[in-house]
Amino acid sequence: MSEEAKPATKIEIEDMITVGDLAERLSIPVSRLIGELMKNGVMATVNERIDFDTAQIIVEELDLGIKLQKAKAEEVVIAARTKPTASDKAQMRPPVVAVMGHVDHGKTSLLDAIREANVVKGEAGGITQHISAYQIDHGDRKITFLDTPGHEAFAAIREHGALLTDIVVLVVAADDGIKPQTIEAIRFARKAGVKIVVAANKMDKEGADINRLKQQLTEHDLLTEEWGGDTIVMPVSAKTKEGIPALLDMILLVTDVEELKADVEGPASGLIIEASRAEAQLLKP
Fold first, then answer.
1. Is the dihedral of CA 35, 40, 43, 45 positive or negative?
2. Structural domains of the chain, with CATH
3. How far apart are the C-alpha atoms of 25 and 11, rounded to whole Å?
4. N or C: which end of the chain has fewer CB within 10 A?
């Protein structure tokens, strides 16, 4: 068989892939791939994700003798989420809220403003590397928050966080709109069967457009209440703290509607959401 007649090498990738991972799969320098993306009007860094169609076009233009195919996604089977049966003596309990969203959309900064701490500066590159859990007081009630990782490398941990919660606060920068990790977070929340409250962050920035964001949400079957749906969108700013009290009020309102209750007497059960290697050793039977 002649060199020209050789069939193209086939590489399977998923619907989304980071630029760095794709360059590695293609065995080319990442700078070459980024350059080709730029020539096609796609500005992406090594850690940003591109969709399959974009990757396919770029690979064809690189003329590497490689053909991309979509990998069949392995669906992880997770037990259906069931609402615990509570007795007549059950009391209202604090909601467990996972805060999720695209990297750089201000997720941890929003939590920082809520609890008036300074977590983001202590994280490598401003990216949450693990799930942190803490409670805050709002009025005479408590809310438990889980801060899930924002970087694509921590997708499995993000999904774990969503499955533990009652409500997902989806943080989306109003000046940037929906991004790949936003879509991923929506999928996790739906898979977990929990209520989604959208926090339209960075409303203080020039270019913030909440109506554009609401339109983008409809493309992912999240229709806002103002437009006849049941998705709550709250305008907030982690920088100025605008809208944060209203967001917390809304979380507690959703808690009341969902009737989150628990028995305070009797055997208790729980889930470990984060542990070190040493702690894991202590838990061994």
1. negative
2. 9-70 (no CATH), 91-260 (3.40.50.300)
3. 8
4. C
